[in-house]
């Protein structure tokens, strides 16, 4: 039987003015099951509001310490409360939930991870997983400018090749992460692309990879209530032979094959 | 949770009608629990009083475009749009699963015409494992310019009369709170032959995104649920208890046993947990256990001793 876990806030790191990393001590059960691209559904204030849980990608896992981390930006009531939370507070978690990035067949080609801003969240755990499996991992992290760039060292530490892109050229490659991805796909032997970020970026990842004939999987962010497939609040439109149908971002996703997602409604 | 004291029986009123027996007074509310599969991973479905399955329509429905949900102060708005596999899809895909449990299964049916309601009731009459019908009258009537059935006492009575004619299953009419006098509508359901009423459905509301200056929900308006609606729901259960003799299934923002006890005391014979499931996947069982603990603490033998307690001075 699945159950709710408790998480104890160990510490928080402020990465940017409005962006934090929260480290939670939680049950080994949850940590051992967590696959790349899956999420936890957090009840921030078990004794009060906000009412609904909040889904967060699993950012990293430390089995030895018994912790997982979440990456978040302060965007509303829930994340404002989180940013003010102090070590020692207890939250509750459901998870790991959802369908994450696929297990790829053995290949000498590299796996390219593309993250836009906070969309980098699930990619660190994913990169660790790929590195542990001996896969060559390249990471492209896109930010508006140098003062919004973060996390590059976390990826280099685990042995991934990292590129930063900025829209204003203040650091790294000048342009969008998808235009650098396009160049990488032309030059390198790439098996697959995994991406997470704003919907406009994911739509471009789908386009660039489609043109290059490279398989891509993208992690979609949608508003969720239950997080387990019952409420039907978080659907994503998926292409099929008959046209299209809705799938659930919380259960069938959040990771979908990029070529199957229809972006009209997102 | 089951023992004699927790059992709730809703008797069939018509000759030859079946009654609905719930092992305990807590039902998972329609639209919040799917067909139980997802929550069945977090709790033993046999421990529930009943499951009101996700609203069914004659044909499959894709549901509304996104955004479909938005959180509001201690509540949420939804406009899912009755996404469901259609009646036949449900019978084929979900009933074999639900039949493996002993818990009472209540089919929630929605139609846009009286004929659609009766056709679904007729079909469900012969489906093994269905224990009751919940008639969702909060739908637009396409023969009357989209007027919502639930707001019109004559329409509520007509639908109820026509549905009870074609089924021996217990018929529960689910009432909308978006009316001037809910007691009057409940009387129409009772006069039409309903075995029980359930209330409240969601409260019509909306939210606006001040960045885009547009409504948040694609379909503009949605149904408000969660603790924010509890006082409204409780007041309407109170009013309906004074208006009719048939049993009431009370719901609206129930998160805890304390909330559920208030509904029982306002006049409900049983309760439903809806949005509470999203927050706490074992909410239904936690509420049932809490009611049981309250009964033990206060030496109560039957849950019915609590029904309407607040009306007695």
TrEMBL record, chain A:
Its pathway is: Pyrimidine metabolism; UMP biosynthesis via de novo pathway; orotate from (S)-dihydroorotate (NAD(+) route): step 1/1
Q: Cite the PANTHER family for this sequence.
A: DIHYDROOROTATE DEHYDROGENASE B (NAD(+)), ELECTRON TRANSFER SUBUNIT, DIHYDROOROTATE DEHYDROGENASE B (NAD(+)), ELECTRON TRANSFER SUBUNIT-RELATED
Summarize where FAD binds, as residue positions: 54-57, 78-79
Domain of life, per UniProt, equals Bacteria
Where does this protein come from, organism-wise?
Anoxynatronum buryatiense
* Originating gene: pyrK
Q: Which UniProt keywords apply?
A: 2Fe-2S, Electron transport, FAD, Flavoprotein, Iron, Iron-sulfur, Metal-binding, Pyrimidine biosynthesis, Transport
Name the UniProt record assigns to this protein: Dihydroorotate dehydrogenase B (NAD(+)), electron transfer subunit
Q: How is the cofactor bound?
A: Binds 1 [2Fe-2S] cluster per subunit. Binds 1 FAD per subunit.
Do you know which HAMAP family this protein is assigned to?
DHODB_Fe_S_bind
Kindly list the organism's lineage.
Bacteria, Bacillati, Bacillota, Clostridia, Eubacteriales
Gene3D superfamilies, sorted: Dihydroorotate dehydrogenase, electron transfer subunit (2.10.240.10), Nucleotide-binding domain of ferredoxin-NADP reductase (FNR) module (3.40.50.80), Translation factors (2.40.30.10)
TrEMBL record, chain B:
Species source reads Anoxynatronum buryatiense
Keywords, sorted A to Z: Cytoplasm, Flavoprotein, FMN, NAD, Oxidoreductase, Pyrimidine biosynthesis
Enzyme class, UniProt record, top EC level: oxidoreductase
Q: Name one Pfam family in it.
A: DHO_dh
- Return one Gene Ontology term, BP aspect: 'de novo' pyrimidine nucleobase biosynthetic process
Please share the entry's free-text remark on the cofactor.
Binds 1 FMN per subunit.
| Domain of life where this protein originates | Bacteria
Question: Which catalytic residues are annotated?
Answer: 139
Q: Where in the cell is it found?
A: Cytoplasm
* Domain Dihydroorotate dehydrogenase catalytic: from-to ranges: 20-295
The protein here is known as Dihydroorotate dehydrogenase
- EC number(s) on record? 1.3.-.-
Write down the required cofactor(s): FMN
């Amino acid at each position: 039987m699945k159950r709710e876990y408790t998480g104890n806030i160990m510490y928080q790191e402020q990465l940017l003015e409005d962006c934090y990393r929260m480290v939670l001590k939680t049950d080994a059960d949850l940590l051992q099951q967590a696959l790349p691209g899956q999420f936890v559904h957090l009840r921030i204030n078990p004794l009060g509001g906000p009412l609904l849980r909040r889904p967060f990608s699993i950012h990293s896992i430390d089995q030895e310490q018994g912790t997982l981390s979440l990456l978040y930006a302060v965007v509303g009531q829930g994340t404002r409360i989180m940013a003010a939370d102090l070590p020692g507070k207890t939250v509750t978690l459901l998870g790991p939930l959802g369908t994450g990035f696929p297990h790829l067949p053995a290949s000498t080609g590299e796996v390219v991870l593309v993250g836009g801003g906070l969309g980098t969240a699930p990619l660190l755990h994913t990169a660790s997983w790929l590195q542990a499996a001996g896969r060559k991992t390249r990471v492209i992290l896109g930010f508006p400018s140098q003062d919004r760039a973060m996390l590059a060292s976390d990826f280099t530490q685990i042995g991934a090749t990292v590129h930063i892109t900025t829209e204003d050229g203040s650091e790294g490659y000048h342009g969008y992460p998808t235009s650098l991805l396009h160049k990488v796909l032309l030059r390198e032997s790439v098996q697959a692309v995994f991406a997470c970020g704003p919907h406009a970026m994911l739509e471009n990842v789908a386009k660039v990879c489609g043109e290059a004939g490279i398989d891509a999987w993208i992690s979609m962010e949608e508003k969720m209530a239950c997080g387990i497939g019952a409420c039907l609040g978080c659907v994503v439109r998926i292409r099929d032979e008959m046209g299209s149908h809705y799938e659930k971002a919380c259960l069938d996703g959040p990771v979908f094959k990029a070529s199957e997602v229809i972006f009209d409604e997102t | 949770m089951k023992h004699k004291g927790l059992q709730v029986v809703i008797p069939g009123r018509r000759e030859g009608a079946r009654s609905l027996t719930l092992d305990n007074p807590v039902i998972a509310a329609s639209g919040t629990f799917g067909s139980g599969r997802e929550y069945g991973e977090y709790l033993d479905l046999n421990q529930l009083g009943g499951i009101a399955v996700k609203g069914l329509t004659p044909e499959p429905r894709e549901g509304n475009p996104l955004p479909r949900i938005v959180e509001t102060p201690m509540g949420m708005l939804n406009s899912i749009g009755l996404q469901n596999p259609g009646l036949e899809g449900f019978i084929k895909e979900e009933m074999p699963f639900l039949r493996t449990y002993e818990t009472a299964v209540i089919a929630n049916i929605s139609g846009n015409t009286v004929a659609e309601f009766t056709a679904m009731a007729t079909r469900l009459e012969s489906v093994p494992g269905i224990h009751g019908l919940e008639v969702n009258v909060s739908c637009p009537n396409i023969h009357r310019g989209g007027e919502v059935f639930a707001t019109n006492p004559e329409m509520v009575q007509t639908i109820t009369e026509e549905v009870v004619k074609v089924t021996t299953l217990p018929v529960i009419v689910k009432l909308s709170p978006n009316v001037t006098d809910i007691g009057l509508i409940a009387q129409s359901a009772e006069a039409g032959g309903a075995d029980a009423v359930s209330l409240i459905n969601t409260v019509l509301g909306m939210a606006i995104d001040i960045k885009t200056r547009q409504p948040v929900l694609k379909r503009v308006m949605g149904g408000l649920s969660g603790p924010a609606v509890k006082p409204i729901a409780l007041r309407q259960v109170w009013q309906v208890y004074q208006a009719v003799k048939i049993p009431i299934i009370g719901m609206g923002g129930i998160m805890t046993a304390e909330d559920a006890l208030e509904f029982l005391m306002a006049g409900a014979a049983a309760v439903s947990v809806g949005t509470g499931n999203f927050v706490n996947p074992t909410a239904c069982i936690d509420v049932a256990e809490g009611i049981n603990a309250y009964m033990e603490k206060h030496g109560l033998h039957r849950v019915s001793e609590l029904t309407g307690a607040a009306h007695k001075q």
